[in-house]
Specification:
The protein has 110 residues and is of the alpha+beta class. The chain has helices at residues 2-12, 23-29, 45-48, 56-77, and strands at residues 32-37, 40-44, 83-88, 91-97, 102-105.
């Protein structure tokens, strides 16, 4: 994975920056939620909004455990992958390297 990330960094090395929206700004705005679930260090607000009601915490924790299981399974198959697409309960999610870990998001959040 380190080699792949180096290639990505080299690709963007001389690119012109048009706009910057930092991780810190996204957390302050509530777009990203800091978490500590294995390698997942950020979750988008829209993922969390799917879990409401009386059993929200239990359902969310079961969801995260399944995400981590599928993510580890994918990582064993493709250890250099910095971006994963997984499906759970007929919904698609992305897991993308964020520089410190991984961000779990819906496709529309990407």
């Amino acid at each position: 994975m380190t080699r792949l990330l180096k290639m990505i960094d080299d690709f963007w090395k001389d690119a012109e920056v048009i706009s910057v929206y930092t991780d810190e700004q996204a957390v302050e705005d509530g777009v990203l939620i800091p978490v500590e679930f294995g390698d997942i260090t950020r979750i988008t607000r829209s993922v969390l909004e799917d879990f409401k009601g009386e059993n929200a915490v239990e359902e969310f924790l079961a969801f995260i455990n399944e995400v981590l299981r599928k993510s580890k399974e994918n990582a064993r198959k493709n250890p250099d992958d910095y971006f994963q697409s997984i499906e759970l309960a007929d919904r698609k999610y992305f897991i993308c390297h964020n520089g410190k870990g991984f961000t779990l998001m819906k496709p529309q959040d990407y």
